[in-house]
Design goal:
Strand order of the largest sheet of chain B: 1-2
Shape of chain A: globular
Order of helices and strands of chain A: EEEHEEHHHHEHEHEEHH
Order of helices and strands of chain B: HHHHHHEEHHHHHHHHEEH
Number of helices of chain B: 15
Distance between the termini of chain A: 22 Å
Low-confidence stretches of chain A: none
CATH architecture of the largest domain in chain B: Orthogonal Bundle
CATH topology of the largest domain in chain B: ABC transporter involved in vitamin B12 uptake, BtuC
Mean pLDDT of chain A: 90
Structural class of chain B: mainly alpha
Oligomer: heterodimer
Number of domains of chain B: 2
Structural class of chain A: alpha/beta
Radius of gyration of chain B: 29 Å
Number of helices of chain A: 9
Mean pLDDT of chain B: 85
Helix content of chain B: over 70%
Number of strands of chain A: 9
Helix content of chain A: 25-40%
Low-confidence stretches of chain B: none
Largest sheet of chain B: 2 strands, antiparallel
Strand content of chain B: under 5%
Amino acid sequence: MESKIAVAVDDLTVAYNYKPVLWDIDLSIPEGVLMAIVGPNGAGKSTLIKSILGIIDPIAGSVAIYGKPYVKQRDKVAYVPQKGSVDWDFPTTALDVVMMGTYGSLGWIKRPGAKEKKRSLEALEKVGMLAFKNRQISQLSGGQQQRIFLARALVQNAAIYFMDEPFQGVDATTEIAIINILKELRKAGKTVIVVHHDLQTVPEYFDWVTFLNVKHIATGPVKDIFNDDNLTKTYGINYKVAVQQ
Amino acid sequence: MSPMLDIQLIAAVTAAACAIPGVFLVLRKMALISDAISHSILPGIVIGFFITHDLASPWLIIFAAFSGIITVVLVELIQKTGLVKEDTAIGLVFPALFSIGVILIAQNANDVHLDVDAVLLGDLVYAPFDRLMIDGADFGPKGLWTISITLVITLLFLLAFYKELKVSTFDVGLSSALGFSPVILHYGLMSVASVTTVAAFDAVGAILVVAMMIAPAAAAYLLTTDLRKMLVLSVLFGVGSAIGGYWFARWLDASISGSITTVLGILFLLIYLFAPSKGLIAVLFRQNRQRKEVSLLTFLLHLNNHDSENERRVAHLQEHINWRKVRANSVLQLAEKNNMITIDNQIVSLTDKGLEFTEKALDYIITNKDEKIEDMKDDFFLFRG
């Protein structure tokens, strides 16, 4: 069965100060997969997501979301940045952060109303954080902060979810809670793309994987391509990981 | 209107207009940029003055605001080379622009009312006498009009783009992904900050305008965890300090702008010390309590682990847990006060409540699940993260 292509990346090159971070990336992500992007530190995993979302301007190449440029498809995409990328001392509450997920559908100037609040509360409930809705965000644990970010993405009600290391600094309970929600999203036909660090959990959590190290190494179903050969190509050392299938 | 009232009105409106962009500068950790803008608008003012020959011309504000934007652009350009950090870039740009302004004044404007003192310290005392006259009718001081219009612009900007400013301040990545260009918002905010600085500059000068932007926001930040309240509080602090500063100046017979800044400084200091949860004293108090509560928990766990009476003697506890007498006594008192232990004949026993508390705490330590201790949080600081 050949499914639609959700994200197509074509000849993408990104550089910081003329030093290439991503080099000539070609990548097709089919609709409905739960995909990990793996690679060593500095491989450009976050940069890839950010350039797909237009947060970073590439020096060459293009990106298509369901065949159209990202700026035309914003409403189809949700994004969870790295937890460490924001200041958690910002004066706001958990509910308010989740509400930010609704801003995209509102556009400029219009304020969120009762409908947006209701959707945000539902998303909070889904990630098990309803009891904390009025908690100031610095008073939340790392795992709770990550759940808030996840709720904010859920409220966007998108077709494609990009997540930058959602398991970073969370405990095992939260990790399982998050992965269950991601699996639910996939079941609902959504495409979920996750920057991931823990190679051990790749076969258990994901059905697709992309190997990245400045250059694109391989993309495909975990059962076909998650092997020592690709790991070695990506990490540069002879990587022996027992792949359980 | 009396000059007295005029001055207070100008000071109060200036403070309100400065406080609003100040909140976002503080939250974006860009407090220093207001210092840079306030200095580097000088060449803009001087050049504007040479072209219009009128110190009250609105063109002056536009020229000056433009040089404020140039400052921001230059800082970013230098920073982007990766050769110097942001604070260094700021430190390089604004003295350069400011010095251009100083030289231009010294060279050309000796005969006019535009001197370095006025630029640095402002001239609130004379502000009531420069009046807006249309067809012979008196419409009040020009300075009041300038700053009031600025305040209205700032308020409109804030009301229209509140949610955009909030999301781009909190999370640049999300803001960009949602289509709210952080670059546009950044320059929008910088334009408002520049215009406000120029308009306030006349009243309070280049140095004190920084205090009006930063001090109220920094104080409000310590008092609230709600952005709306932070904005309202900042405006109130600014206005209160402006009026308070005026009367302080009259009492001391000193510079008005200097007094306003002093009042702002004192206000910040008081809040820094006494703010209910983020103030210095509250933090120290909380740390002290947390230390006590960790001790209490250690003590309760010890009781829980040891059944024999020998282990539960008051004297033994002091030796065994290796605490000095004062600390041991204060922990015993804390436990007794909370009905967690009973002391009978120098033998300490856990009450049912103490037992329950210990078990819950243990559970929390093991599972690290916040829900388990929700109901304990009111009584104890320890679990408040």
